[in-house]
Amino acid sequence: MGLKIDLAAQNGSGETGYAMLTPHGKGTLVQIHLPGGPAGVAQPAHIHRGTCVKLNPKPAFVLSPVKGGSSSTVVPVSIQTLLASPMAINVHESAKDIRKYVACGDIRKSM
């Protein structure tokens, strides 16, 4: 069973979507669905320690860039490990404008 993480737009990007976290062996498959991004632009994505409000700037896990509205990466830890302390998935505008976040979602169990 997977865990759905809502991704909210940041910095006026208008980019919203979700990420699905699914067990994958000893790791976790992270699939990002984020339509509405700029055509032909690879948008870097990461899992950071902290929350969308207060991210640790150093990525805990690098995810495959979002291209054409989607990304798929297996990270080497379980969903339980990702839920054990505050973590968030964030997406950047582009490699050129890495400081601008366009979407973010806190990793937490659904209510």
Write the layout of secondary structure elements.
Blueprint: E1 3-9, E2 17-24, E3 27-33, E4 43-50, E5 55-66, E6 70-75, H1 79-84, E7 87-92, E8 101-107
Antiparallel strand pairs: 1-2, 1-8, 2-3, 3-6, 4-5, 4-7, 7-8
Summary?
This protein is mainly β and 111 residues long. The protein has one domain: Immunoglobulin-like, CATH 2.60.40.
Walk me through what this model shows:
By secondary structure, this protein is mainly beta. It has one domain (3-107): Superoxide dismutase, copper/zinc binding domain (Immunoglobulin-like), CATH 2.60.40. Helix content is 5%, strand content 55%. It has one helix and eight strands. Strands 5-4-7-8-1-2-3-6 form an eight-stranded antiparallel beta sheet.
Output the keywords.
5% helix, 111 residues, eight-stranded antiparallel sheet, Immunoglobulin-like
For this structure, the CATH topology is: Immunoglobulin-like
Number of domains: 1
Instruction: Give the CA-CA distance, first to last residue.
Output: 15 Å
- Topology as H/E string? EEEEEEHEE
- Strands of the widest sheet, in order across it, are 5-4-7-8-1-2-3-6
The overall pLDDT, averaged over residues, is 94
Main sheet makeup: 8 strands, antiparallel
Low-confidence stretches: none
> What fraction of the residues are assigned to beta strands by DSSP?
over 45%
In the CATH hierarchy, the architecture is Sandwich
Fourth-level CATH superfamily: Superoxide dismutase, copper/zinc binding domain
Rounded to an integer in angstroms, the radius of gyration calculated over CA atoms is 13 Å
Can you tell me the overall shape?
A: globular
The percent range for helix content is: under 10%
Category from helices, strands and their pairing: mainly beta
Q: What's the β-strand tally?
A: 8
The CATH class, by name, is: Mainly Beta
Q: List the total number of helices.
A: 1
